[in-house]
Amino acid sequence: MTDDGPRPGPGWYSRTEDGSVAWWDGSQWTAPAQPEHPGPPPAQAMQPVPGWYPTPDPAVERWWDGHRWTDDVRPAPARPHPPATGVDRATEVIRLERIRWAGVSWGSGPSGLSVAFGVVFVVMAMPIVLFALSARYWIMGVLMAVMAVTFLFGAAAFFVNAHFCRELERRRTTAPSPSSYR
């Protein structure tokens, strides 16, 4: 990029001298040059999980199958527009780790563990319900019923969390469909 005339915005650009791409932050090259179509990481390095990853073209993502880059590509998800004021800066892609719903961050932990805890809470609520139904005094029945309902709400929360965990696991490992965008 030269100093005469307007400068392009931040992004990955081809470097004509060697056919690689590098990150231009709006004023200088900040990332080392990378090949246009990088090969898989070295065998001794830990392999990234299969999934959709950004390409030098910000409008497209490419599928990594866990061992190599495939020919499957798709349009990248829409990204929020930068604020009207402030300094432009490079951003990194952040994988979705939690889902915000009803004011709570859901999706922590493995889905099987959440299901197991939900089942444990339901099983723990059963004898409490029996004690509430057979209580000799009404106040004991009410207190036991409140305790049982608390356990059942806890179980419901674990089951909802398990649903969101499964959704996040599915999003991370969904392979491309045959009708992928090209």
UniProtKB/TrEMBL annotation:
Lineage, uppermost ranks: Bacteria, Bacillati, Actinomycetota, Actinomycetes, Micrococcales
Name of the protein described by the UniProt record: DUF2510 domain-containing protein
Region Disordered, residue ranges: 1-49
Organism: Cellulomonas composti
Residue ranges annotated for the DUF2510 domain, each copy included: 50-81
Pfam families named in the record: DUF2510
Key words of the record: Membrane, Transmembrane, Transmembrane helix
InterPro entries, per database record: DUF2510
Superkingdom of source: Bacteria
Keyword S-adenosyl-L-methionine: no
